[in-house]
Amino acid sequence: MIEAVLWDVDDTLFDHSGAERIAALRYFAAQGLDTDETALRRWREITDEEYTRFTAGELTFAGQRRERVRRLLERELSDAEADAWFGRYLEVFEASWSAFPDVDGVFEVLAAPPYRHGILSNSTTAVQERKLTMLGLRHRFEFVVCSDDLGCSKPDPRAFLQACSALGLPPEHVAYVGDRLDLDALGAQAAGLTGIWLDRTGAGASVPEGIHRITGLAQLPGVLRG
Ligand SMILES: [Mg+2]
Known about the structure:
This is HAD family hydrolase. This protein is α/β, with parallel strands linked by helices.
């Protein structure tokens, strides 16, 4: 029986892609940069690549931000210059933050026992604590554990098992919900948890054996009840 749910944050609870798109459109326009689809796609690709280097331990959190700015602007920038540029971008980005509209509803259903909730994210604890607080969601979770504290990142099974330890539950009593099939659902499954893939796009890629695919959080209570 599932007694607890561990959650991903970005693009699961928090509309990261939507906020990033709005922020890039606004900030790039103000900076005189291109704002067409090609420019937005390039920013996403740069972000994905540099963030992957951060989760692999090749860059610090600040370092991946600086590299994203340097690659986008295609010029040499000091750390201070890159930090200043990214800081102004962050202000616009944070003004665009919102949770997905189905988040409140699912916690209305799942807030009661037997379900307990925690956060396991590949970001940093300070960033996610602040984000969840600003979104009015922090009180839903017993804890926030992130890769900077754990010393490992999803899909490493150790990340999932450490989060289960924080719950004091064996992995077979815990489900993980996230938007990435590879990092989230398959990673969780490999560690012995129930892997639930939140496929918000409904792209409908084939679903591996044992993985539960949902296209919105309203479907989650039914999956947990089995
Ligand atoms: Mg995510």
